[in-house]
Amino acid sequence: MMKLKLFIVIGAIAAAVACSQATSNTTNTASSNSKPAVNTNAAASPAAETASGAKLYSTNCAKCHKEDGTGGKITVDGKTIEPDNLTAAKLAAKPDAKYVQYITDGFPEDGMPAFKDKLSEQEIKDIIGYVRSEFQKTPPNPAPANVK
Predict the structure, then answer these.
(1) What is the pTM of this model?
(2) Which residues constitute the domain of residue 101?
(3) What is the mean pLDDT of each run of 10 residues along the chain (148 residues)?
(4) Number of domains, the chain
(5) How far apart are CA 39 and CA 18, in angstroms?
């Protein structure tokens, strides 16, 4: 219930920020065969990025990694998989570039699909920012530390 309240508050803040920003720098190039439109404004607010990341995570990641990021063994489309626990220190130590690679290319042999044709680069970064702030309590893009 507390997460729902937090999500609603963050969403309200993001909506207020979005409404106050000029939209003249937004490029809308979405078509049925292209990636989603990307907002080309120089910088989105942290609240807007967190709200976007929360929604994108819930839509694209929570089915396997759970709403709280803990992952664990599940069956999806008849295949039993064991998605990573995103709250684990080992994963928190990985740099954002690794997460971008994981999300973009996926791990088909482990059951994780590639999202390169579904999510824009900014959307992937928003998800990573949300995972960092909500589950790992780390700043974005930590320095590489024995990344394997």
Answers:
(1) 0.65
(2) 2-14+45-136
(3) 44 40 39 45 66 96 97 93 97 96 95 96 96 91 54
(4) 1
(5) 11
